[in-house]
Design a protein that fits this description.
Alpha-Beta Plaits; 11 strands; 34% helix; 2 domains; elongated; binds flavin mononucleotide; 10 helices
Amino acid sequence: MGQNEQEWGELAKLCEENGADAIELNFSCPNMAEGGLGSDIGQVPELVERFTCAAKQACHIPVLAKLTPNVATMSPAAEAAKRGGADGIAAINTIKSIVGINPHTYVSAPAVHGHSAVGGYSGNAVKPIALRFIAELGQNPALQGMHLSAMGGVETWRDALEFILLGGNSIQVTTAVMQYGYRIIDDLKAGLNLYLTEKGFGSVKEAMGLALDTLNPTTDTLERDTVIFPQFIRERCIGCGRCEISCADGGHQAIRLDENRRPVLNGKNCVSCHLCILVCPQRAIRPGTKRITHK
Ligand SMILES: Cc1cc2nc3c(=O)[nH]c(=O)nc-3n(C[C@H](O)[C@H](O)[C@H](O)COP(=O)(O)O)c2cc1C
């Protein structure tokens, strides 16, 4: 990482001279020893453009800009990287977070001489956020043709596939390798290959971006008039009452328990949120066939 054009250029040149096949410009790490580095750059598109341009002009190998998720939208920085000549985007880096606070010392982790700091969060918990950013970049027509190296919480072949389906052209894994070792990459490749073969894909490229067309940026575009009532499978129900509690306290008070603690639906209150289906530990509730259109 550099702090000005000259440093970024020198670093890019050195990387190429020392045999790098490609360079990833770290505009995104939130855990820096000094200001003006890492995510301080990725949050300012103008700096992304200038430093990408400096690195690109100093070498002949592909240059990717690695961007920060600590922004509302990633497109401004990604488009700036493209203007600077980047061949691709890598995302996401870690998300600024606080993982917890010690109830005795009142210091959050990591504690260093009684003080702490906001740091970068990674691993499987960040995957939904990472997928959202990859989709944003994958759907951005201004970025067409740029390589998209996707990451954030990938542990299994299925995680990798989801990033590919949202437009990822290559996948990176950090935290899961730290936890489980490089061997998981063999499992990841084997699982992905099996999936691709079973689905009849000739190459992984055929799967890239397949989930983008059906993904709307906001929920207001979705149809909301159809109601699919839950259907209770009495033989599987153990009478735990979780569906009733969730519906009463977090839903629309549409479920009551009968004298045998079996759920009974009040269709007038049900909005088919399917919270009951989610919380049932017995898989004793499924979407029913009845649909009503309120129009
Ligand atoms: C301990 C640790 C060190 C990291 N160091 C770097 C780094 O030096 N440069 C960088 O661009 N990203 C770095 N990252 C970010 C990861 O490369 C990756 O973008 C992020 O952790 C999300 O992917 P993951 O969930 O697979 O870890 C680091 C992540 C962790 C957990």
